[in-house]
Amino acid sequence: MSMTSLKGDSAFQVRSLFRSLLRQSRQFAAYNFREYAKRRTIDAFREHRQEIEERRIQGLIQKGLKELQMMKRQTVVSQFYQLDRLVVEGGKTGKQTGDEGGIIRVKDTGWT
């Protein structure tokens, strides 16, 4: 195998791992965990963007795969403890109403 095909293969592995980690981070039930996982993934990949040593890259890929497996387990657990959606998430959690500029948070159930 030539050196360029090895570099191309590791680049494919890195991109695939990055996409898998981001996809898995969207599976968390809680907004804060989703955002933390996404931010942590992006920061980790940016930190090692300039890495050129093949052995180090393979070590980082293995570490990332372990992180992905851990994240998969954590997302399954987080599905058991689903909370109400936060205001920053949007969605059908209620609507803002009020008269004379006042805002009252009204839930879909009809009570305030």
Q: How would you sum up this structure, described in words?
A:
The protein has three helices and two strands. It has 112 residues and is mainly α. The longest helix has 27 residues, at 54-80. 8% of the residues are buried. A two-stranded antiparallel sheet has the order 1-2. It has helices spanning 3-25, 31-47, 54-80; strands spanning 95-97, 104-106. 60% of the residues lie in helices and 5% in strands. A hairpin with a 6-residue loop joins strand 1 and strand 2 (104-106). Helix 1 (3-25) packs antiparallel against helix 2 and helix 1 (3-25) packs parallel to helix 3 (54-80).
Task: Describe the structure using short key phrases.
112 residues; mainly alpha; two-stranded antiparallel ribbon; 60% helix; disordered N terminus
- Distance separating the two termini: 67 Å
Mean pLDDT: 80
**Largest sheet at a glance?**
2 strands, antiparallel
User: Biggest sheet, strands in spatial order?
Assistant: 1-2
Helix content: 55-70%
Oligomer: single chain
Structural class: mainly alpha
- Written as H for each helix and E for each strand, in order along the chain, the element string is HHHEE
Counting DSSP E segments of at least 2 residues, the number of strands comes to 2
What are the low-pLDDT stretches, counting only 5+ consecutive residues below 50? 1-6
The fraction of residues assigned to DSSP E strands is 5-15%
Count helical runs. Answer: 3
The radius of gyration computed from the alpha-carbon positions, rounded to a whole number of angstroms, is 21 Å
Shape: elongated
